[in-house]
Amino acid sequence: MRSIVPFLLFCALAAPGSAQEGPTNQIHYPLSEELGGLLRAAEAAAKAGRLEQAVEIYRGVLDADRPDGVYQVAPLSAGGADGPRRFVGVTSRALRGLYALPPEGKQLFRAKYDYRAHSALREALAAKDRYRALMRAYELFPVSSHSARMLEAAADVAIEAGAFSRARRALERLAAFHADDVDDPTRLLRKRLLCAVGAGDAEKARSLALELRRRHTGRKVDLGGRAQRVDDLTAEALRVASLRSGRSRSGPPAGTHLVRGDARNRACFDFPRIAIGAPRFSPRVFARPLPAVPLRGGRILPGTLPQGSLPARHLAIAHGDQVFVASADALFVYDLRSGERSRRIFPLPRRPSFRDGNPKVQFGAAFERGIVVAPLVEEVLREQDYKGIPIKVKIPVRKLAGFDVDEWRWRWDHARLLRGTPMERWSFPTPPSAEEGVIYASAWAIEGFVDCNVGAFDARTGEPLWRTWVSSGQVEQTMFGEQAIEPLCVPVAVAYGLVFHCTSFGSMAALDADTGRPEWITEYRQIEVRAPRGYYADTRSLQWENNAPLVEDGVVVVTPLDSPSFYGYDARTGERLWEASRRRYGVEPDMRYLMGASRGRVVVAGGHEVRCLDVRSGKLVWRAALRGRLVAGRGLVAGGAVLVPVDRNEVFAFDLEGGRRLARYGLRSTGNLTISGDALIVTGSGSVSAYELKSSAEGRDF
């Protein structure tokens, strides 16, 4: 066994970032083919019964991963006629290999490494961020005698913080892989039930409650020292789910805290069938549209929004009776009932004023634990030219900042917080996502090539929790080799304990939400980035709008900015399930927007058409024409209907099941749609308005 040790050390010290020649564009990954080869050797050794050799190789691979804090990936498939190239996280593949060892192999692991696992457990329990320290320790020693204690301790920390989904992930892994190491299975079952109720999973809560009742005969379940009925626990889980989604009708509305409804970006609002009623307030202007539109007293004149002001780049969030919208350099708040600006959010100090003309940038924020988090311009890289020939162009660098709504002040600013860290040069040009006190955001950094990164941050403090470099690519360049456009970025989606990131540089990735380790990376077809033509950059024609990936029924649907197609990926494995063209024939309209998803279906729209596809197969379910109208923003799914904003200040409603047009509603402006409580919020190109929502019997056209 000593013969592999020098090779492992070489792998550990080898710099990640091997280059890969893609079908059209060059992509760089944190690729380690050496560690991939060792993983294959470990799998072969385990299959041949050489368990001691397999255990030592797996342990060496886990130690060798993350040099300089960068997780590495290994090739999974070479691509070609059978599908795209795929990669797997080195640590993730090693974990699966160790889980698959027979009991005698796991005993060998424990005999050799339990003393190190115990030391890692003690260090993690003393760490400042105990949860992530415990999960990282578990990654290094996943089948030790201390693994069960690591996971249960991590779950206890998460429960104390009210992060029930996070605790649930740790407990589910504990039940799946370490049930034999738990001294009290009933205690584990009670904790899993508590987390299911706290996470709002009524079906799982009922199943666990029934199992707990079977173990202890009686009509009630003992939870937290109190005997409770199964039906009451199920009802409590349903109530929690209602509160978390903003569907609760009791008390003040919780609001819509993410720009696409939830962390899965489904833009799905589970209400009874609804209709749009009278306006609460007419459009309020917070940023000058491009091009300018007629204003009177800070309001858009009805019927004067021109088609040229599209696409709508702003998305709103709401908390209680407050609506928050962001521009490139400021955050604004409006009263959801009246549209009045009762309070002002003062700008961050020493931030430039910037009017952003990039149509592919999306403006929005996230609300989490009392903090509104938004990306705002920190600085603008200056443009340079030589006799009118561009050398450098203006590129805004954007940083996240957190505004405390209770204290009504800026709580943290990444422009200061990330100074002197490896994330200092990161730029965050998209609305972040959030879950249980953690902010997840995609970012780019120019390091020769353009790095695609994902980071996780504490919502209350802005402190980094983890960072992951996914890949590097290139955008159009000037004739002097400088970036000719701001690098592309889209928001992330969060589901199943994973963060899904479309790099906009030819690949889709899934990262572990707790530590940031890559689970899988799968490539897609790109639009070629070409060299400059003469003095000027040869810019690509990017037809998709900036759409966040969405997760529905175990499938990640993504519309990459840099691809002519859209795709469905298996969320667990990264396998490409289907590919569909944005436009199959020249006479067809271009699909541009990802509207939303529900009931195993996903809706896309663009031009004068709406399409609904089966999310598992990608097959067309129905298509509907807009009869002379053009799609003008991101719609949503609510009450079994698809609401599609169109030009001429209208919204069309279509039946999700069959595509039948249900209604047409006239508005004061058009744009992106979201729902908060009993209000529909419309965010146009620099404007926001709100409308009453009523039952379908009460709705009427205006």
Give a verbal description of the structure.
The chain is an alpha+beta fold. The chain is built from 12 helices and 42 strands. A 6-stranded antiparallel beta sheet has the order 3-4-27-26-25-24. A 5-stranded mixed beta sheet has the order 7-36-37-38-39, with no helix packed on it. Strands 8-42-41-40 form a 4-stranded antiparallel beta sheet, with no helix packed on it. Helix 1 (5-13) runs parallel beside helix 3, helix 2 (33-47) packs antiparallel against helix 3 (51-64) and helix 3 runs antiparallel to helix 4. The protein is globular and about 70 Å long. The N and C termini lie far apart (78 Å).
What is the CATH fold-level name of the largest domain? Methylamine Dehydrogenase, Chain H
The CATH top-level class label of the largest domain = Mainly Beta
Multimer state: single chain
Report the β-strand fraction as a percent range.
25-35%
Largest sheet: 6 strands, antiparallel
3D shape: globular
The strand line-up of the biggest sheet is 3-4-27-26-25-24
Count of separate DSSP helical elements: 12
Structurally, the number of domains stands at 2
Radius of gyration: 26 Å
CA(first)-CA(last) distance = 78 Å
The CATH level-2 architecture of the largest domain is identified as 7 Propeller
- Portion in helices: 10-25%
Task: Please provide the count of β strands.
Answer: 42
- The low-confidence parts are 12-16, 19-23, 292-309, 698-702
Output the CATH homologous superfamily of the largest domain. YVTN repeat-like/Quinoprotein amine dehydrogenase
Average pLDDT for all residues = 88
What structural class do you assign from the helix and strand content?
alpha+beta
